[in-house]
Backbone:
């Protein structure tokens, strides 16, 4: 445990220096343990496990572009993302890990207690056991506080889900070299830093935002505190929501019913507008992302050296909620987003979620005929006084290479219209938090942003409304 975050940063620097890491780009056809199938060109591991990179054909998408083809990561097994919680002197602390991932722009970030695919924790790679795994697989000790199958980045994964867990223990837990206990107050401070708390930790912590002790007495809010008095508190003031939960579930169900998206796996080698060249798989116009290979060395991982393919986005993403106060109650504008690889095809997402560079020009260099996503310009042109949160965070570093997004909360003025286009709905933070408890509702980008917002200091959470 640390007395403050200054002490943590000293420890973190020491742990980064104590281990040796190396990541080098390797042509896809020279990746150790990986090969391109002769008939399909799909990238597969010699074990038949871990994941593969295949082609995906999308039709009738209901989006600005109705049909396209792209590479996609196929990883049907569920991983475990788990955080162990223990109270010290009545203060809950989370056991987090300084973990290297080859795709992290700064290599080492704070990960959950356990962050492992099934192939990893079943030791298909022949490496060392995953520390603390016994707390998250049956039979386990401790009390399960949160447990849900949650989606991963559906633009690049096909139907990928991980088990997000929070387990509380009273047992004596030995703390290994790269692990540390952090209070929720300390985590809240660290979340304000760019590229420090990784995506897997953020998605699990959205479950902490959703946890609330039972209400006591008439009129008490059931979500006043997390873990019986830790930092994370509701943004909500007393007041009415614009829509009740039944209406929001009906809106979401209607969006699912309207969705016509169809998809099927196709050979990677036959994708339109994609080709293998110079040791990577790239788009014909050098847009969207590339598939590249890396060779990795890490002295403190279960396996100290390996190779793998990764997806590398061509540009930085923007992920943002628009916020508006309705009779004093903060509402977020949520979209029912058609997700290429999502299990249910539709998930609740932030108001804006895209790579803006993809919408600048068409093939001839003119304005993109597909049009810019709704509200993107509202976010990008927001004044400093409107921006309540703004930080650049890394996406999942185990599969995505230097993937980073700018996460924002933008509070709009009182005269901003409440009428929302089809596929969008205003809901309170409390209502959105409620949907975290269930899988296949909020996408990973929404959960990550909700964690960042849920841990904001009160002075930032509750500013005066924009005039």
Residues:
């Amino acid at each position: 445990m640390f007395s403050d975050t200054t002490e943590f940063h000293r420890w973190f620097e020491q742990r980064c220096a104590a281990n040796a890491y190396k990541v080098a780009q390797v042509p896809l056809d020279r990746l150790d343990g990986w090969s391109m199938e002769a008939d399909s060109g799909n990238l597969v591991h010699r074990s038949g496990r871990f994941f593969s990179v295949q082609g995906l054909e999308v039709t009738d998408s209901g989006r600005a572009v109705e049909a396209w083809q792209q590479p996609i990561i196929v990883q049907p097994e569920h991983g475990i993302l788990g955080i162990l919680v223990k109270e010290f002197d009545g203060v809950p602390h989370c056991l987090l890990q300084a973990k290297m991932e080859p795709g992290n722009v700064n290599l080492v970030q704070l990960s959950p207690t356990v962050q492992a695919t099934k192939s990893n924790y079943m030791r298909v790679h022949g490496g060392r056991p995953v520390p603390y795994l016994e707390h998250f697989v049956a039979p386990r000790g401790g009390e399960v506080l949160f447990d849900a199958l949650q989606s991963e980045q559906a633009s690049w994964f096909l139907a990928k889900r991980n088990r997000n867990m929070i387990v509380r223990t009273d047992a004596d837990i030995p703390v290994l070299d790269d692990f540390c206990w952090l209070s929720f107050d300390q985590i809240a401070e660290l979340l304000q830093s760019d590229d420090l708390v990784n995506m897997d930790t953020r998605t699990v912590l959205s479950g902490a935002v959703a946890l609330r002790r039972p209400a006591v007495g008439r009129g008490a809010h059931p979500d006043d505190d997390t873990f019986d008095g830790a930092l994370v508190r509701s943004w909500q003031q007393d007041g009415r929501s614009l829509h009740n939960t039944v209406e929001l579930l009906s809106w979401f169900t209607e969006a699912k019913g309207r969705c016509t998206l169809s998809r099927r796996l196709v050979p990677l080698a036959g994708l339109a507008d994609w080709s293998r060249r110079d040791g990577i798989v790239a788009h014909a116009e050098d847009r969207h992302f590339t598939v590249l290979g890396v060779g990795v060395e890490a002295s403190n991982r279960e396996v100290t050296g390996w190779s793998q393919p990764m997806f590398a986005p061509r540009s930085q993403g923007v992920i943002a909620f628009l916020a508006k106060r309705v009779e004093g109650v903060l509402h977020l504008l949520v979209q029912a987003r058609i997700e290429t690889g999502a299990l249910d095809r539709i998930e609740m997402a932030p108001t804006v979620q895209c790579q803006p560079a993809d919408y600048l020009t068409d093939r001839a260099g003119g304005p993109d005929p597909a049009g810019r996503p709704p509200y993107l310009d509202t976010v990008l042109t927001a004044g400093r006084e409107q921006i309540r949160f703004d930080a650049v965070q890394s996406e999942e570093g185990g599969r995505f290479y230097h993937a980073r997004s700018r996460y924002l909360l933008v509070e709009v003025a009182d005269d901003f219209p409440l009428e929302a286009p089809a596929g969008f709905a205003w809901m309170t933070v409390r209502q959105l938090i409620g949907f975290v408890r269930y899988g296949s509702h909020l996408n990973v980008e929404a959960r990550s942003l909700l964690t960042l917002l849920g841990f904001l200091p009160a002075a930032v959470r509750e500013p005066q409304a924009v005039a």
